[in-house]
Amino acid sequence: MKKYLALALAVVFALFCFGCSAPAATTEAPKTDAAASAADAAVDFDSLTLDQLLEKSEGYVGTAGLPDYWTLWSDSFATIKEKYGIDRNVDPDLSSAEELALFIAEKDDPTMDLGDIGYAFTITAVEQDCVQPYTVDVWDKIPDWAKDPDHKWALSYTGSTAFIFNDAAIEGELPTTWKELLEREDINLAFGNVIGGASSQVDMLAMNFALGGTWDNIRPCIDKCIELAKAGRLDGGDAGETDFETGQIVCGCGRFDFNGSNFAKDLNEKNIPGVHITYVIPQDGALSTGYALVLNKWAAHPYAARVALNYLFSDEGQIDRARGGARPIRADQIDIPDDCPILGDEYYTNIITPDSAAQLNAACEAISEAWENEVVPLMG
Fold first, then answer.
1. Residues sharing a CB contact under 8 Å with residue 19, sequence separation 6 or more, in sequence order
2. What CATH number is associated with residue 73?
3. Given phi > 0 = left and psi -120 to 50 = alpha, else beta, which region is 212?
């Protein structure tokens, strides 16, 4: 993983320097100077009220890894704009590893303030020393297991393993287990960015459990993917919405249930010929994990960023996540509207959860390294 982080840092730095990839911001980020940044570093932000934060709000927040479609971040930031007058960039939709690498690469001239990283990557974020503490108003209401004792990260929602199918391109009944899916030679699998993407690594780990693997033994899923790669059944696609819309892939195994919900809503309404999205929770191996909001250690807009964080953990912000198909971390404390696209508990009877971020991180690092060294060379 450390090898990949170094690579990702170089790649992301090049992309942002030469303008090869990330979308341009709709609103130019306010400029900051070194004196202002130094003054901000000495501020006791936890002592400030919302009104005091708003008085100094920069009117802008930069985000990476919080794209509009992912748990409907678009709804939250539209409300933040309406309520508090805070704009944001067009999010570049980076993987967890890329987000942290970007924080570090841009530390002398930061553009991004907030990131959303997989639970396993919270350890990396702290080790890399690229995030800073924040304490939202409802900090005490966030479960202890879902937040850092030093206040450097907190999960805001969870998701679970899902098969996302373009069922218009698949004949017969859809597989509902890993066993059934792996036996279907007519269906290729797309896991997305297994080297640096949290959801891809987690879903590989879910397959590992279905194949008899453990947290400490990830060989079953790697050996199976070597077999699939040799048979030409691994697709290198991102497993994102665009891949389904263009017909590039028919089965995404590197995303979560809330992605399936949003892909189905967006694409099925378009009535695209040959495209219809369905998602299922595999009943012989599904893993549930969370995503943590983190504040860039060098954030250029620390006041606006904290205003945004307070909203995202508020009752209203948590309901936004439910409307995006995810399970809010404070689900037991809020009234989730009946029309939120969350599957019933009966679909999650065999869900596996990690005991700790360290346990998940170790397994995901092992999967990332083995995928890069043993599986990628076999993919065309």
1. none
2. 3.40.190.10
3. left
Tokens of 305: 């960023």
Helix or strand (DSSP H, E) at 166 = strand 154-166
Q: Could you please report the per-residue DSSP string of 29-65? A: PPP--HHHHHHHHT--GGG--HHHHHHT--SEE-EES
| 11 and 136, same domain (yes or no) | yes
First to last CA, the chain: 23
- pLDDT tens-digit map of 182-241: 999 999 999 999 999 999 999 999 999 999 999 999 999 999 999 999 999 999 888 889
Q: Does residue 112 lie in a domain region?
A: yes
Provide the residue range defining the domain that includes 114. 2-19+43-158+289-333
Residues of the chain with pLDDT under 70: 1-41
Q: What are 348-380's pLDDT values in tens digits?
A: 888 999 999 999 999 999 999 999 999 999 997
Determine how β-strand 189-190 pairs with β-strand 286-296: unpaired
- DSSP code string of 193-224: -TTT-HHHHHHHHHHHHHTT--SS--HHHHHH
Q: How far is CA 9 from CA 64, 99, 107, 227, 236, in A?
A: 14, 9, 12, 31, 21
Q: Report the C-alpha gap between 76 and 152 in whole angstroms.
A: 22
Q: Using alpha carbons only, give the angle 157, 163, 327 rounded to the nearest 5 degrees.
A: 15
**CB–CB of 307/317 below 8 Å?**
no
Give 165's DSSP letter. Answer: E
